Amino acid sequence: MGMAATRHPVAIRSGPRRAAVMAIAARRREQLIAVVRSAVELSATQRRRLAETLAASYGHQVHLNVVIDPSVMGGISIQIGDELIDGTVASRLAAVRRKMAG
Length: 102
Prior knowledge:
Layout: H1 16-28, E1 31-38, H2 44-58, E2 61-68, E3 76-80, E4 83-86, H3 89-101
Parallel strand pairs: 1-2
Antiparallel strand pairs: 1-3, 3-4
């Protein structure tokens, strides 16, 4: 007799597949996912305060995925769905450059 095949879930470590799976899971829990880009690691207090502020603004709990990105130079950017809140030094410098150029 043959042995029955047992399917085990595959760990999804990173990339678009992981993001898609996390988005589906969050929707099921009625929780939003915010991708936060920062030049430095955020403290536990900063993460908690940011999550609380976003939850109050959006009316849902918000899960933070914090990405350390030195290219932002300072400040943070927050993306929730298709909305982007960009408070990075890099974006401010780019805006000044555009204004001076033109």
